[in-house]
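Narrative summary of target 7.
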Amino acid sequence: MRPTKQEFQRIRLRTIHIKTLLFLGFLVIMGFIGLLWFARPKTSELEKRDLTKFPSFSLKGVWDGSFFSGVETWYADTYPLREGLIDANTKMEQLYGFKTEQIINNGEKADAIPTGTVDLEALAGRGTTEPASEPATDSPAPPATGESGGTTVSTEPAEPVTTEYNGHGAADENHDLEKAGSIYIADGAGYGLYYFSESNSARYCLLVNKLAKNLAGKAQVYSILCPISAGIMLSQEDQEKIGISDEYAAAEWFYRNMDASVKTTNVVPTLKAHNDEYIFFRTDHHWTALGAYYAYREWCKVKGVTPHELSFFEKTYEFDGFLGTFYSNSNKDPSLAANPDTVKAYVPNGTNKMNMFVANNDGTFTEYGWRIVNDVSNYNKTQLYAAFAGGDQAYNYVHNEAVTDGSSVLIVKDSYGNAFIPYLIDHYEYIYWIDFRNYKKWCGWAGYPDPSISNLVERKNIQDVILCQNISIAGSSSALDVMESIYK
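Modeled conformation, tokenized:
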């Protein structure tokens, strides 16, 4: 027997009431979860960044409303279930249709790459007068740890301190000056996209030329502009379709406009010749240890030394399941998740001991003994690139007692340099490397008012300086702003 109209209305109202109660119950539960202060995350593994902190209370902030907007941002950014909800939303979006190709964060536009040499000052938008250098100090006050202000490398034994760092090596993807940038995803792999900037590239060349001039007769400057993956791994047709710049032509432009005293290494042709090999990660913006190895071999030609074969390295590590910056910045793209990477690392033979200075939250630094190639098998799968060179610490040094000729090198790097550094260890007795993005802060803490590369070279009697940055960061205005006080 069919229900009457009145019975149907009662059933309908009862259903509405049940749905309303369920919805209100859901809101109450979600609101209660939001009140769990202790459960709020401080960092995001998905986005690889620190989350918004609770705003400081002030009467001015209350009056102008900034305090309340800050609380609103903090509440949303640190909600306990935030990353799970983002992940669920991404999976729901995928139900609307699987995308075999997509470009993420594509807001950049490339300049045409000029032929020949150019007026760098005009392109950089400057006059001919260079700003005065910061004054150097003859006797800086050293910190109480192993780093000393000695004038020659032979006086600094660089023995690793006994304290072990209990955390992970700093991952570069947390750094504001190095992002994955625009990403092209196709067939289960991500590719970093490069867009040439004429004015910013001119600024970089001016900085390198200034450094080379200041180091004339003191140290040899080498430049390695590390390519990013799209320019190496994609066909010319695909590169033109996406509208990215030719990385070989860009590198040649940089090198034509650098001072003749700078020894340059264009690694693009060699990497392209090996692009059927595993030289770039699929889920991350870095090159692999194999990609860095081919770049190292090209540098050896320029340096005039014999490169070590991969069989030379007696110990290696392999870490499976790596899901890097492309994976994180694409909201865990399922095609990348289905193709995780393997991080392989070659341990130097002479020594695997290094010293690094790790930044503390209060602006100070602590020196730790660490490993040049570290076992990261217990790390989060998004952090496995931290296996190389301690991550992106401000200042690091090694004394390789297997080499006794007093040779020394400084690598000025971003995170691409991390995978490159282990190959240099067996060529030098003293190896230093700085991450230009953090080095000035370390100098301020260590008592060195002049954070320039020249000052460090003079203090440590360094013979070779290798500039090792990826080609995108060499054309980044925010990165160049930081380089201004370092590259001189």
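The chain has two domains: 5-94, 120-129+140-483.
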